[in-house]
Fold this protein.
Amino acid sequence: MLALLVVFSLILLTDYFGESPSSPLHSVQRGVVAVLSPIQDGASKVLSPVRDVTDWFSSTLRAKSRNEQLNAENTRLRTENMTYKAYAVEYAQDEKLLKLDNLLNLSQYGLVSANVIERDSLPWYDQIEINRGSDNGVRVDDPVIGQDGLVGDVLAVTGTTSEVTLIVSPKFAVGAMVEATQDGAVQGYPGVIQPSVGDDADSLVLSQLKPTAQVSPGEDVVTSGFRDSGDPTIESYYPPGIPIGQISNQDAQNTVVNSQQVDVAPFVNFTQLSVVQVLTKPHANS
């Protein structure tokens, strides 16, 4: 049957292409087209809105799916970007800490690196919490430094965390000195660093200076690391030379003469502090 149908189709095709346009087969074709063409046009017009609605739903679903994919991709890229920025900030602080360590030879003081995991919620920063504790050799009163200098000291410890009192806390005080340059030589004028009293919560005061101290604006203030030669047990917890800040008074000399103190702007930006180091052996040279 299939063979017969194929042969019959070939015969019809041969006759169709072999006959003239006025042949019976061509006439039948034109008749069929004339009858079916209006039906086809009508069906096309009737079904056109259905196709349009179907196409709209299909396009909308594809667009929604694509939009969800793009939103997910955007969220992923934004998260990665934030992570990379955090890594970049931490790397920059680590790099500065390494330079400070090398400059002051701080590795001898048993450095333990830590991340800041919690800050004081008050408008001024009084304390921070770090992710290192007694399990890492951290003890109460150990000095803590950041990329730009002295941060504070350890107030309390657990096995894995420590509370750090910042140098701008009212509870903080440390022996310090001005590194003043006179006639090409560096002179050290000792005093005590304490937080400024008043509205300026981020400022320090270097007090107990001698009225004869010759100081100028912009001169550096560092830890003095004092020792009592009469009593070896009396010694600062802080090694000498750790940067604290700079004298900020424009009339520093007159201020010293009149009140034996000067204002000091700390080097450390406590609002951006994320990486610190604890000096677990501050008396390494004792």
Notes: Residues 228 and 234 are 6 Å apart (CA to CA).
